[in-house]
Amino acid sequence: MKRLLEHHRYALAVTVRRLIGQPFSFFSNVVVIALALTLPLLGASVLVSVQPLTQHVSANPAITVFMTPDASLEQAQAVAQEIRSRDDPVVLEVRLISKETAYELLRGNQAWRQALEVLPDNPLPHAVSVTIAADEAMATNADVLARQWQQLDGVAFVQLDSIWVQRIEALLRIGNIGLAMVTLIIALVVLAAVFNTVRMQALSLREEIAVARLVGATESFVRRPFLYQGGITCAIAALIAIGLASAALTPLNEALSGLSRTYDALFALHLPDALSLFLYVLAAISLGAFSARWSVTRHTRY
């Protein structure tokens, strides 16, 4: 165990000396990888920030249950109570809208006021507005609930904006798939950058590695400094990427603050939680070490 720790300490010291000996190459690689790693972080920040917003803004799908024209307010209240009593987990809010309330709301709209004034009485029915949770299965949930509520006593029809619901689902799905594709592309970029760097260094140290093998150096002993090089490079790049993403979010949030105020909402983009960022750095280190091992294994066989 002591010998293994000594080997790792030696490999780490060799790696640091090599990186210091080629500062421009090391710095350029770190910058390229950091810029690449910033992109998926920004994409994840947008998705993480937008997802909770769907619980508070009008993106949540609403189902409107319209009563028959001759249905009484008591019947509408009974329907609203029936929906609440079922305790469906996807139902977030149940709100009764009387025909009088709806009529006054329309009268407050200039486009509807003149049309309502020529009518002899209030033609609007009582209605129950139900807000359901926005998740991946919200279109299916909304269809099922709409069919159930259509059978309630006094209900004329149930209006479901299924197209809008499906659009929300599609946008969230596209965002997740797009982020996954960008992350895969970035991983390939990092893999290629580290692979090429280690390849060039392995070729430049060809004679030194050959001599080390002649005196008994094992394959693990030869590869270990290169693995540290790939891991350290990607670790520093990932930390810089987090800093760049955080700095990029500042002007974006300043621009979004004015827009969010027009919707009476507080919205800001933020990075994923600390555990996710730690796993992101760990994944970058693993990718760098894997790329370095692959490169040095391919180019030191002689």
From TrEMBL:
<feature type="transmembrane region" description="Helical">
    <location>
        <begin position="26"/>
        <end position="48"/>
    </location>
</feature>
<protein>
    <recommendedName>
        <fullName>Cell division protein FtsX</fullName>
    </recommendedName>
</protein>
<dbReference type="InterPro" id="IPR004513">
    <property type="entry name" value="FtsX"/>
</dbReference>
<keyword id="KW-0997">Cell inner membrane</keyword>
<dbReference type="InterPro" id="IPR003838">
    <property type="entry name" value="ABC3_permease_C"/>
</dbReference>
<dbReference type="InterPro" id="IPR040690">
    <property type="entry name" value="FtsX_ECD"/>
</dbReference>
<feature type="transmembrane region" description="Helical">
    <location>
        <begin position="177"/>
        <end position="198"/>
    </location>
</feature>
<feature type="domain" description="ABC3 transporter permease C-terminal">
    <location>
        <begin position="181"/>
        <end position="299"/>
    </location>
</feature>
<keyword id="KW-0812">Transmembrane</keyword>
<comment type="function">
    <text>Part of the ABC transporter FtsEX involved in cellular division.</text>
</comment>
<feature type="transmembrane region" description="Helical">
    <location>
        <begin position="277"/>
        <end position="296"/>
    </location>
</feature>
<keyword id="KW-1003">Cell membrane</keyword>
<comment type="similarity">
    <text>Belongs to the ABC-4 integral membrane protein family. FtsX subfamily.</text>
</comment>
<keyword id="KW-0131">Cell cycle</keyword>
<keyword id="KW-1133">Transmembrane helix</keyword>
<dbReference type="Pfam" id="PF02687">
    <property type="entry name" value="FtsX"/>
</dbReference>
<dbReference type="Pfam" id="PF18075">
    <property type="entry name" value="FtsX_ECD"/>
</dbReference>
<keyword id="KW-0472">Membrane</keyword>
<feature type="domain" description="FtsX extracellular">
    <location>
        <begin position="62"/>
        <end position="156"/>
    </location>
</feature>
<feature type="transmembrane region" description="Helical">
    <location>
        <begin position="226"/>
        <end position="249"/>
    </location>
</feature>
<keyword id="KW-0132">Cell division</keyword>
